[in-house]
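INPUT
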Amino acid sequence: MSARGTGGFGKVAVLMGGRSAEREISLMSGNGVLKALRAKGVDAHAFDPAERDLFELRRDGFARCFIALHGRGGEDGTLQGALEVLGIPYTGSGVMGSAIGMDKWRTKMIWLANDLPTPRYRILAGGDDWQGVARDLGLPLIVKPANEGSTLGLSRVKAAGELPAAYELAATRFRDIALAEQFIDGPEYTASILGERVLPLIRIEAPQGNYDYQNKYFTDDTRYICPCGLPPEKEAELQAIVMAAFRLLGCRGWGRIDLMLDAGGKPWLLEVNTSPGMTGHSLVPMAARAVGISYEDLCVRILETAHVG
Ligand SMILES: Nc1ncnc2c1ncn2[C@@H]1O[C@H](COP(=O)(O)OP(=O)(O)O)[C@@H](O)[C@H]1O
Ligand SMILES: [Mg+2]
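OUTPUT
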């Protein structure tokens, strides 16, 4: 707990709900955070931007915001911009880090320009030379939208002939830019960032690989393993890459980076989540527990990182 005590935060709004596709998960995250902060003596209140005008935050005397919104309108920099204008400190990344983190394409460009490893990719435009794309990236390959909706718009493509349909799904259905990406055949991890520290990695094991939306969200078969089983020096090396990758995007406060290792043990960064899930069984709370930080303490620690400007 901070030296000034949890009462020193003033009146805190836990922003939850919102209008994105991830509204339901956000309400679960937000209610968990709300309960935890209250248990810690913080004067915390729920605030749903889908139901109330953000300007009411100032009118109602809120001194800081805990952002428990996911996806568009909560994680993409727009809300962060509004809070900057209102002058109310908020948790997590600022306007630029949030906006870049929401965009997998621009995230990859920044990482690649700085020699950080992320799978090779092509932007699909429709009517592409599908055989050429398959030759260039190899098969299988992954097609996914660059922004929101990725989990649903993601396909694992096993033959060039499947590319047009995968493109349609990623680009047309989600009105997005479609990214074709080299397939990484190896274990998947997620790394949680809290302040200046990368918490222990979690290994994610889904039944037939993790690309499948069904496995990831609707079956209980996915296993989350922490400690992740890597040798300590390998984990430390990955944590250093993750911290550098997070900072390069202009991200701050807290967040999560998804990554994979290939058969040779080489790491590949997939994406950053600037406002990850915060339900009791979400991944950042799991990583925090592994270093003795309870869910309640984690919520207070995140609140402490709130900033403006
Ligand atoms: N290049 C890739 N190679 C292998 N699997 C991938 C690749 N890209 C994504 N995946 C799988 O798809 C999942 C979702 O992709 P990700 O880029 O993290 O988007 P999001 O989590 O926003 O849906 C990953 O957790 C991973 O299991
Ligand atoms: Mg992901």
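end of record. The chain has a mean pLDDT of 93.
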